[in-house]
Amino acid sequence: MFKNLLKRSSSKLQIKAPITGEILPLEKVPDPVFSQKMMGEGIAIIPKEENIVAPVEGTIIQIAPSKHAIGLKAKDGMELLIHVGLETVSLKGEGFKVLVNEGDHVSVGDKLMVVDLDYIRNKVQHIITPVVITNSNQSSNQYYPTAETECQAGKTSILTVDQ
């Protein structure tokens, strides 16, 4: 009767889509840093809309100087990186309008950034957007990508983290 009380309780965190689009496994990102999970576990999205929203409740911990990536820290310490497109650092901020600052607290669905998809698509080879848990190798969490192929920003769960 008491043995169930001694078992480690686990919780599940749902990471929501930061952008509306087509969901792909991280292994499909045409960049080995992401596809080989050198930066961590995650999933990728080919964007169809320009708004980037918070995928979890947490704090903004990093905004790339070139505005192409935003880092967040969830309440449980998990760190996420939303990296819009590949080689977008070369755009030097053009095509990106960041709406938050480092240190800001955000809730799921809060708007973080607006991107000019047409501009970016015409300037870089890929608009695919990896969403990566950068400290996943420092935990024993299990990560389960969604079976969905399309997502809506702030609404669709794209990754379940079993903590």
Automatic annotation (TrEMBL):
Residues 31-135 form the PTS EIIA type-1 domain. Pfam families: PTS_EIIA_1. Gene3D superfamilies: Glucose Permease (Domain IIA). One of its GO terms (molecular function) is kinase activity. It is found in: Cytoplasm. PROSITE patterns: PTS_EIIA_TYPE_1, PTS_EIIA_TYPE_1_HIS. Keywords: Kinase, Phosphotransferase system, Sugar transport, Transferase, Transport. GO terms for biological process: phosphoenolpyruvate-dependent sugar phosphotransferase system. GO terms for cellular component: cytoplasm. PANTHER family: PTS SYSTEM GLUCOSE-SPECIFIC EIIA COMPONENT. This is PTS glucose transporter subunit IIA.
